[in-house]
Amino acid sequence: MRDTLTASLGTPARGHARPGRRHVMDFAEVPKAAWHALTARSLGANAFYNPDWACAAARHARNHAGGRVLLAWDRADPERLLGLLPVASAWDSLKLPLPLLVAWHGYAPLATPLLDRERGVEAAAGLMDAARAFGARGLLLSPTDIESAATQAFVNAASVHGGRTRILHRHARAMLDCRQDADAVLRTALGPKKLKELRRQRNRLEDGGAVTFEMISDPQRIPAALEAFLQLEASGWKARRGTALAQHDGDLRFIREAVPSLAAQGLCDIAMLSCAGRPVAAGIVLRQGCRAFFFKIGSDPEAARVSPGVQLTVDLTRNLCADPDIDDVDSTADANHPMIDRLWPGRLAMGDVLVPLGADGPVLRICEHALRKRRRMRAAARTVANRIRTLRERLS
Q1: Which fold would CATH assign to domain 179-326?
Q2: Whole-number percent of the chain with pLDDT over 90
Q3: SS3 (DSSP) at 373
Q4: pLDDT at 23 over 60
Q5: Fewest CB within a 10 Å sphere: which of 93, 175, 200, 332?
Q6: What's the rounded Cα separation, in Å, for the pair 80 and 260?
Q7: Architecture in CATH for domain 2-172+349-395
Q8: In sequence order, what are the residues at sequence separation of 6 or more whose Cβ sits closer than 8 angstroms to the Cβ of residue 153?
Q9: pTM exceeding 0.85
Q10: Which part of the chain has CATH 3.40.630?
């Protein structure tokens, strides 16, 4: 990472990488076949580190410059990847002058590294060696599943050098256990009164014509379905806040490249709710292994009175619970999300994990203090911004 990390992390130390095998590369330089193979056998599922998703984000998505990829290679087989983690410097990622590498956020709401499922600790140690070679004193995985086998692999690898892995921030986000009966999940989560209200809203929606739900997976139909999703997302509150994908050329190029690429591999669906043939809600669903990821949702604001986004999610719940290939679904939502937390009662334990790259010492304690302080300040600023936004919306 000479061009983006040297200023804050120094130059690579000698002796860490074997000749002919680089342990830090640009996204486009990583051998795609090796990356895809590691994704298929990774210890923990992370669809956002699929090379076709991550590379598209690195090429196009706004505000995601400065990312590179840490690699851990098999010593006996130079073509086999054991570990992979996209990263950026703490300065590029957080605007903090700290000797840390931070999991890169290129439309990746999950920072679980890809580790070979048979050699998880060895893979984690290899990624830590690659980071250490660039002068980093720690790795920040944020946000990641703190109870996952991948996180435990880093805990075990760090302990070899006397380091104590720290969880700096804990929160829970909604998930769906698809091994349960969908109607039982919805009854437990919503209760009879809310289910009755949803049925009443569904009937009102049907007054405008036949209501249909479909999981679109055919690669030939994906581009048109994606355009319908983008139009819906850009018609509601996301557009008012400037966060809709279609509002930014780079984001638009990214999603138009990534979604069809994953759909061609059978790893992306678009959930679509239509009334009289007109889309009223849509969502992007990614897949990796036995886990699905509910990435984004968009809905027609003119149908807001009948809760089209909720209606879509209810149908999606039934669809995914009936899918024998899916065990659970990560909502990828913020903690305490007002819609999905109510519908999906399961929870994923998430957190910001600081992995030391050596024995504990004063430098790592300074990093920990700075990261905690930054999070507190951002939380306070977000609270003020939300209150101002709410007031403006009430007055408008």
Answers
A1: Aminopeptidase (3.40.630)
A2: 83
A3: helix
A4: yes
A5: 200
A6: 27
A7: 3-Layer(aba) Sandwich (3.40)
A8: 43, 115, 120, 121, 123, 124
A9: yes
A10: 2-172+349-395, 179-326
